[in-house]
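User: Quick sanity check before I run a bigger batch. Here is a single chain. Can you write out its predicted 3D structure?
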Amino acid sequence: MTRDEALSVLGLKSDATRDEVQVAYRELAQMLHPDKFAGNKRLRERAEQQMRSINEARDVLLKGSGSRSRAGSAHGSSAARPSSAPRTPDQIAFEAEARAHAAETARLTVVSQARTLRERRGGMFSLTVVAGLVALVTVRMAGALGTLIFSVSSMLLVWGIVDVAMYSNQVRVLDRRARDLLRQRDAARDIARRAREL
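Assistant: Done. Predicted structure follows.
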């Protein structure tokens, strides 16, 4: 993975600091973690692939960033800050903006997956319709060829129905997740706006 690809995966700009990489990674990893899709095996497998990409992107950027961070920055990493230390409005705004950006990056990823699954569902639906029509036409055909064509089309019909139902369920889960991420993004943007006003 190149640096540009890694920046794209984490949704960062080319001048991102080490702290920004760490915060973006943490927020994105929380939002796209496979545990969010524990009830759906296929979506969980996709989330695991995404986590591998997110981990690789973090490693590429942190390995290449050395000790680069903003000098005198008020945005210091929350990992380096003691948990009892009060956060400044600048730190709150920085973390909230990172959370909003990660939520939007995660939402776009989820929306893209849902679009892909909708396309697959559409293709499978077309196959199901054709298989159903072929089964209807061949149901009365006599002979071995008619029986064979009817059997194959019936199997395709059942397979198509099952896959359309499965894809529909996955799309529903992804749509719900996209709405949750949109709410998280808006809430984080609101927190960042209020923190900047302090």
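Residues 66-82 have pLDDT under 50 and may be disordered.

User: Great, the batch can go ahead then.
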